[in-house]
Write a structure and sequence with these properties.
The complex is a heterodimer. By secondary structure, chain A is an all-alpha fold. Chain A has seven helices and no strands. Chain B starts with 6 loop residues before the first helix and ends in a 5-residue tail after the last helix. Chain B is globular. Classes of the chains: A mainly alpha, B mainly alpha. Chains A and B meet through α1, α2 and α3 of A and α1, α2, α5, α6 and α8 of B.
Chain lengths: 135, 213
């Protein structure tokens, strides 16, 4: 079992230790400005790391709150106006699948310019030429 | 338990949201408070830690790197621990860093010795213990010189101690940790700390002699 009082004063009771501690403190006081500045920068770098981790953790804490808020807003909206559900457009995946599987439609899109020219050409043929009325 | 639908459910949802918001606000304050405590602790300890590391590795730049590394590791791993636990944890990280540094240096020196390319600069850097520094207290040059010489003698004597004895002496005497915290910092029992410390004092008294009597 360790006696706390004995622990605290054991080092300073010895004259050599007390003298060493005094000289050590003096050497600490003599640290130059450049060294102190570097120490300060080191400390700030360490604390920046803590701030970064805290910010990420703080952001993560808002996720459940945001989820609850969204769910609450949706619930309130549904309770007040059930027609909201009907207003949500249904997604018909089968129709999109049919469009994709219809190869000719895609081919038509690829040659759109050709079909446009063909259509314009057909209109020109159908329309009566001005020369037909002459004579 | 399923909640009833209708306005009651909406009120319950809003109450949950308010509780979560309040909790987030409190945790933000706690984080700020913790950052302030860490800042205070690190600024209290950094100068002595630097000198302790400097005496151990006998190079200020290396000591600065070791202290920075110890600060970052403490913040990363132990920021959430209670402030009372920080001193032994910080010094444990620092002492481990110093030991790793000595191991790396030992390997490097062996490699250099193998290739026979040790330079005079390397040797000179080992001998140069205290960097020249202005005296903020404005003491007379002879007094300043006497203080520096005395400290240099102590540093040389400490450098010749076995690692564990040096650690025990510096943590107890320079940092003022008690036996229990020194044991935590050194990763050994309280009895070992007492033994190392006692032997360190005995060796230092023999080495320094009348200079320190």
């Amino acid at each position: 079992m360790i006696d706390p009082d004995e622990n605290k004063h054991a080092a300073s009771d010895d004259p050599l230790a007390a003298d060493a501690a005094r000289r050590f403190d003096e050497s600490v006081q003599r640290l130059d400005a450049a060294t102190l500045s570097r120490l300060n920068r080191s400390r700030q770098a360490a604390l920046t790391e803590l701030a970064g981790r805290t910010a990420v953790r703080r952001w993560h804490r808002w996720i459940p709150a945001a989820a609850v808020a969204t769910a609450a807003a949706f619930t309130v909206l549904m309770l007040n106006d059930p027609s909201v559900i009907d207003a949500i457009p249904s997604y018909d995946a089968a129709a999109d699948f049919e469009v994709i599987m219809a190869g000719e439609n895609l081919e038509m899109l690829e040659e759109l310019e050709f079909y446009r020219w063909l259509y314009a050409d057909a209109e020109t043929e159908i329309a009566p030429a001005p020369d037909d009325h002459v004579g | 338990m399923p909640r009833s639908s209708g306005p009651g459910a909406a009120i319950a949802c809003r109450a949950d949201f308010a509780v979560l918001c309040r909790r987030s606000h409190h945790t933000g304050d706690a984080a700020l408070q913790r950052e302030r405590e860490l800042d205070r602790f690190l600024s209290d300890v950094e100068k002595r830690a630097l000198r302790i590391a400097e005496i151990s590795v006998r190079d200020r730049d290396e000591a600065l790197d070791l202290v920075q590394e110890a600060m970052i590791k403490l913040v990363r791993r132990y920021a959430q621990r209670s402030a009372e636990e920080w001193p032994p944890l910080f010094y444990r990280i620092l002492q481990n860093g110093v030991r790793d540094w000595h191991r790396r240096r030992f390997v490097r020196n062996r490699v250099i010795a193998w290739f026979g390319s040790a330079t005079d600069d390397d040797v000179a850097r080992d001998i140069d213990v205290i960097a020249a520094a202005a005296d903020p207290a404005g003491r007379a040059p002879d007094q300043e010189l006497e203080t520096q010489q005395a400290m240099q003698s102590l540093e040389v004597a400490l450098a010749h101690l076995p690692t564990r004895q040096r650690e025990a002496f510096m943590l107890r005497t320079f940092e003022g940790l008690d036996v229990a915290d020194t044991a935590k910092a050194m990763g050994c029992t309280a009895g070992s700390v007492k033994t190392h410390y006692s032997r360190a004092v005995h060796s230092l008294r023999e080495t320094l002699g009348e200079h320190w009597q």
